[in-house]
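Subject: for your reference before the review

Hello V.,

The reviewers asked for a structural picture of the protein, and I figured it would be easier to keep everything in one thread rather than splitting it across files. Below is the amino acid sequence we used in the manuscript, unchanged from the supplementary table.
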Amino acid sequence: MRIAYCIAGTRRSRGMERVLANKTNWLVAHGYEIFIITTDQCGAKPFFELDNRIKCYDLGINYEENNGKSIWNKLIHYPGKQYRHKKALSQLLKELRPDVTVSMFCNDASFMPSINDGSAKVLEIHFSRFKRLQYGRKGLWRLADRWRSFTDIKTVRGFDRFVVLTEEDRQYWGNLSNMTVIPNANTAPLNKGYDLESQHVIAVGRFDYQKGFDRLIQAWHYVDRTHPDWQLDIYGDGTDRKMLQALISDLHLDGKVILHPSTTDIMNRYRESSFLVMSSRYEGLPMVLIEAQANGLPVVSFDCKCGPKDIITDGKNGLLVKEGDISALSEAIIKLIKDKQLRQDMSHEAIKMMCRYDEEAIMAQWVKLFHQVIVKR
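And here is what came back from the structure prediction:
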């Protein structure tokens, strides 16, 4: 079987890119022919290692060069880029002749079902139904986000199959006949040997609005008052680095909260930590929670849409905190810092619960889906 994946790019250390690398590496190792088609690779290498049998193509549309500019700039340039994108993608798909083409819900989603290349079309989303409304933008941008959120329903109906990550998110989309749930898989080996004596807490993600590290740093300000010997390590990159560093300095947390660059060796960073905290404003099904749990780490997380409640059973393998309650987040962190036995109990439970995300079982669901959409078409 020949499968083409369409995504903006693979050059960044984000969860969606990691999931794509994991899935395509598994598929090509099991005899599938895999293509990855990008629009904004900009000549960079993939951040996560890809099997050299995977064939990568970049269309050079470069939507991201308009990011950060006015809405009028987008309105002027976006239609032309969409036209060039559809034309280039149509031509490439007719040359590659995949059996299945998968959109990662990037800029191709609105027109992909209309490309008549003979392949079945699958759409997968790595955020929640409300992702556009959760951007937190104001003015005309907010109106645009509301409109695009409304039109998303029409977009997903055009695909042969629409895949969401959680049962929670399935409910938000309504009664769509083409929708199914397949969670992200855990590809990290289960590891019971994390450092229980560590006084380091870890957080991982992009330095941007979604990941909410500003809220985590504010929570750590309270943690530091009673536990100044503990340290928070945040791994990532992004546009908010300067703002986050300024907040750390304003709260006199220099040396207590450290912003580290993204790393491909994150598994060892998990194992050097005592537990993980996730402060996101919204998610899909967070890989950081799955990977941390696979390494035996308890987790503390805001109960944001979507994902945390699918992974965390409150009080068993971690602690769920009311979304946006910074005081409650600091209290949950302090609770785990003070209770070593609770951390150990949660660590054991985390390992047991990760069986739900076994890679072989999850990929078997994807393989079944691919065969179903081909037969149907």
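For the response letter, the relevant points are probably these. The chain has twelve helices and 13 strands. The longest strand covers residues 2-7.

Happy to draft the paragraph if you're swamped.

O.
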